[in-house]
Amino acid sequence: MDTELIIIKEYIQQANIEPQFIALLEENGLIHIQEMDNERYLPADELTEVERYARLYYDLSINMEGIDAIHHLLDRIYALQDEMRTLRNQLRFLE
Q: Is the dihedral of CA 18, 30, 44, 78 positive or negative?
């Protein structure tokens, strides 16, 4: 399956964000960057996350450690919501 890729150099110009911000996200494992032909790309399915992180960082002045903590907490919330949905479905089946 081919993943749509966004050229990072063009994205940071359009979004008006610093290249160091993208590098920090990658260093902290929050995004995965692909490199091909000496060009760095961001998978399009990670764009929503990058925009969320940018709002936290630039608009709310949350540092990278805070963004990482928020990321992990949100992942845990989503996992618990999925588990709760599964358990509700099982309960409905048993009723």
A: negative
Cβ atoms of 42 and 28 within 8 Å: the answer is: no
C-alpha distances out from residue 70 to 44, 57, 59, 64, 79, Å: 21, 12, 15, 10, 14
H or E element in which residue 24 lies: helix 19-27
Please report, in tens digits, the pLDDT of each residue of the chain (95 residues total). 567 999 999 999 999 999 999 999 999 999 999 999 999 999 999 999 999 999 999 999 999 999 999 999 999 999 999 999 999 999 999 88
Q: What is the DSSP string of 26-83?
A: HHTTSS--EEETTEEEEEGGGHHHHHHHHIIIIIS---HHHHHHHHHHHHHHHHHHHH
Residue 22 CA to residue 64 CA, distance in Å, equals 11
Cα 72 to Cα 29, 66, 93: the distances in Å are: 11, 10, 32
